[in-house]
Each structure stands twice: as C-alpha cells, then as structure tokens.
Amino acid sequence: MGAKSHYNDVLKERNLKATKHRFAILEALENCKIPVTAEDLYIKLKRDGISISLSTVYRCLETLHKKGIVIKSNIPDYNKAVFEYNHNEHRHHMICIKCHKMQPVNGCPLEEFEKFIESKFDFTVKGHNLEVYGYCSGCGSKETASNYSCCPERNEGS
Ligand SMILES: [Zn+2]
Ligand SMILES: [Zn+2]
Q: Does some domain include residue 30?
C-alpha cells in the first residue's frame, strides 16, 4: 500500500491519471535494478500475472518518460532503448558492448573537472554525460576463456 501511494503522488504531481498499468510499470521498473527494454519489462509484468499488452507497455513508458518519471536511454549500436525509474540521482552507466547490459554506477568522478572548466574557461556548467563501455563480468570472462583456447601454433608438434 505504501509503495502504491508513493506512485500515486508521483503521477499526480505530473498531472497523470493513476492507472493500474502505470502503477504496475513503475513498480516493476523500480524492482529492476538495471535499465530494461520495453520487451523485458513486458515479460516481467506477464510473469507477475499482470494482463497488459506490449503496445500498452510502450505507450506508458513513453508517457512516463515525457513526464520525467522514467529515464530513457539509447544504447549506441543497439537498436533499442532501455528504461529505468528516475530516482533523481545523478549517475553514470557502464554499458557492455557484447550483451548490451547497462548498469548504473553511483557517484560522479567529474565534479572536480566541472569546477576546473568553470574557472578555466569562464563557462557555466549545467550538466554532463558520461558512459563507460566495455565487457561485463559475464562477457569479459567468456572472452578471456576463448582467447586461451585458440593457440593454433601450439598444434604443430602433435
Ligand atoms: Zn555483457
Ligand atoms: Zn557525473
């Protein structure tokens, strides 16, 4: 009950009607610790026994995104957008270039850099973006394993 009234306030503040689909989407998004695609969210909602169509999920996410309740990010080179609940925290992301998983990183290393830019260039900084690319723990270890197993030169003696 407590969580639901919290979403009620969030929706009311933005002049959105508090529908049960919006509740379900916000609750599911907040429970996902990482940003998810609309399809992933749809599968999760179905699994939780919520009757909703994929197009409704898309439509709700777009509305929530336009109102700033949900953050939408596009992963470069991957034709999909991911969504996460907007906790109004400043954070950065690590993006796996193999499985396209996007994980949030708390904290910001650029505060000092912003101050440096402001004083050096007399530029008023209003924000920044920083995304870090690479391999997540799952994909990184697979990559290393396959590298070790392919050593063609070693096969000559046998
Ligand atoms: Zn990965
Ligand atoms: Zn930052």
A: yes
Quote the ligand 1 centre to 143 CA distance (angstroms): 10
What is the span of the domain harbouring residue 94? 89-147
Distance between Cα 10 and ligand 1 center (Å): 33
Instruction: Report how far ligand 2's centroid is from the alpha carbon of 89 (Å).
Output: 10
Backbone phi and psi for residue 13, each to the nearest 5 degrees, phi listed first = -55, -35
Same domain, 10 and 57: yes
What is the maximum span of the chain, computed from C-alpha positions, in angstroms? 74
81 plus 117 within the same structural domain: no
Determine how many CB atoms are found less than 10 A away from the CB of residue 42.
22
Distance 116 CA to ligand 2 centre (A): 14
The band of 91, judged by pLDDT with boundaries at 50, 70 and 90, is confident
Write the pLDDT tens digit of every residue in 15-42: 999 999 999 999 999 998 889 999 999 9
Average pLDDT for 43-57:
96
Ligand 1 centroid from CA 101, angstroms: 6
58 and 81 belong to one structural domain: yes
52 has a pLDDT exceeding 80: yes
CATH code of 41's domain? 1.10.10.10
Per-residue pLDDT, 139: 93
Neighbours of 38 (CB within 10 A): 21
